[in-house]
């Protein structure tokens, strides 16, 4: 917004842009939206911006919109009063230069001494704002350096692009030498999981919740042959970014893990390869996919049901009539044909009882009135109104 512009027009344009972003499925956090609205104002609103930022909690966007319009009206009133005072001083023949300059200096000193001392809402120390707090900046910089990592390769995993032939990233498994358990992030991988409630400690000493524990079946390809492998005691940790295979657990089962420059392999005591993992960046991604524990049953659709669906769920009587009169070429049904319980037809025929009327109601007009005030509208009416109130009489409604 330019200096001296109309605040109402600026706010209307601002929220118009926000509505366009939401129409494109781009959502902005409420606090971030309030900050963006504050910093879109010109420098003349600096004191107002500092006063809002020094609060412990930022107001929501609707509250901030009303407060900004009120502040804009106050500034217009102050500017008009200052202009009238300057006009009066200019035409005062009794004023003297020395006296006026002395009064001006005194007024300036008085204003400087009466300026509010802002108190930071973060460190609770007066003299600076939340945005300029050095203690807050230092802590945020330390948090950025101590980024949470689930294992030694978690940070690298964000920059590696998996092979599209392996399936989705959620089905991938990585060999991790620091992980002490088999862990997965998708509960659908578990076969008949057992509910449990415990905590697991990550590599950065943070804890995460374990929701379930069960087995997982993997489909892997060895020598162009697909094999099914079962992993026991898999922990479901939804906070993880990647499914992890513990090298320590594999070794404890009597297998040997061999890491090469481009590939890693899991071998039994005879040297037979059971699993292979290709290197992608600094990760060893298992070759194979997860067999989800999903079961699906499909009932064979009869010919009558198929024609019932093709004709937009037409009733059986009309279908038999069309078949008997040969209204459709190649359409034949037996006289004893039936349509089983069609879920779509049952759903569309469902009805609900009407809402019961109120037992108690006012006996006279204007005895009870329901009122509601609509929030400020972004687009004003022809006469400039942005609010409207509804009044409903309980007796005559």
From TrEMBL:
GO molecular function: peptidase activity
Entry superkingdom: Eukaryota
Record bears the keyword Hydrolase: yes
Keywords of the record: Hydrolase, Protease
Keyword Hydrolase in annotation: yes
Ranges where the GAG-pre-integrase domain occurs: 282-349
Retrovirus-related Pol polyprotein from transposon TNT 1-94-like beta-barrel domain: residues covered: 173-255
Stretch list, region Disordered: 85-112
UniProt feature, compositional bias: Polar residues: 94-112
Biological processes per GO annotation: proteolysis
Name of protein: Retrovirus-related pol polyprotein from transposon tnt 1-94
Organism whose genome encodes this protein: Lasius niger
